[in-house]
Amino acid sequence: MVFLTGKRILVLGVASKLSIASGIAAAMHREGAELAFTYQNEKLKGRVEGFAESWGSKLVFPCDVTEDQQIADLFSQLGESWDGLDGIIHCLAFAPAHELDGNFVDVTTREGFLTAHEISSYSFVALAQQGRELMRGRNGSLLTLSYLGALRSLPNYNVMGLAKASLEANVRYMASSLGPEGTRVNGISAGPIKTLAAAGIKSFRKMLEHNARQTPLRRNVTIDEVGNAAAFLCSDLASGISGEILYVDGGFNTTAMGSLNDLESE
Ligand code: NAD
Ligand code: 0WE
Asked: Which end of the chain has fewer CB atoms < 10 Å from its terminal CB, N or C?
């Protein structure tokens, strides 16, 4: 099964080997894709270059998505090596830490709201804009990562839930906008996974345990499982799928009462 042979795919969001972007890159490399990467800041440069090399890539560029110039430079530099692009993987999000700890109405600020939406949602369409010419007419696809907090409230996810709701609407509007030129746009809504972004969250371990117990598969998902779904969505196997949010969460989102197994009264 080498279903991404000949595809050139740009991956944003590798920060560590635990990153969801790393699971996606590994699966796409295995399926024969040629990959390029970005890093958020100089601190991450060497690390991302190392990972890139392990996935057969020397194409590594800076891109802090809050900087228009860095997004523009990314695609002009990429265009020097690649004459076309088949995929963009948007695997990044950010809200100030204090917004993700406490009662939503108490802790939300104008600045935190704007930051969360800018980095976690606006950046997806900004990348589409700048990458559009390289992707045109190749039956390529864009993919982003969301979370169930977009649709349902849960403790502490707070303003990130609003940003993910915006991101999921962004998927649908971008799919409509880019469909006529052959480009598909989709999202994966992943279950909780222990990554760097999750490490900063109070009681994340407790959340993982609860989630595993209440999930139909009775376990949490892995970055490799998200990677396999991502590779599928960016391949020609998914040529009829656009504007879709695909759940890779062990079925968690489909249940209403979860499991009663851990209750005494059973
Ligand atoms: P991670 O910490 O490994 O990745 C987050 C990435 O965002 C990092 O690479 C970081 O450099 C990047 N980033 C933050 N601000 C940036 C900026 N201004 N410019 C460029 N890059 C920036 O964590 P992860 O869990 O792999 O997160 C990847 C995506 O998956 C996020 O969109 C997250 O919301 C989503 N997601 C995570 C989970 C989970 O439980 N870990 C579940 C569902 C969805
Ligand atoms: O999207 C996410 C995490 C995104 C995230 C994480 C951080 C931590 C460090 C965005 N910004 C920051 N800012 C920081 O300073 N997830 C889906 C993982 C996650 O985060 C949660 C969760 C889950 C699940 C936060 C609270 C509750 C649940």
From this structure: C
Q: What percent of the chain has pLDDT over 90?
A: 95
For 227, the token pair is 């990677």
Question: Which secondary-structure segment (H or E) carries 176?
Answer: helix 159-178
SS3 sequence, 134-149? HHCCCCCEEEEEECHH
CB atoms near residue 150 (< 10 Å): 20
Distance separating alpha carbons of residues 266 and 133, to the nearest angstrom: 59
| pLDDT single digits (tens) 213-237 | 999 999 999 999 999 999 999 999 9
Over the Cα atoms of the chain, what is R_g?
Answer: 18
Half-sphere exposure of 89 (CA within 13 A, CB side): 35
Residues with CB under 6 A from ligand 2: 93-95, 97, 100, 147, 156-157, 160, 192, 197-198, 200-201, 207
Task: Look up tokens 């059973």; give the residue.
Answer: 266
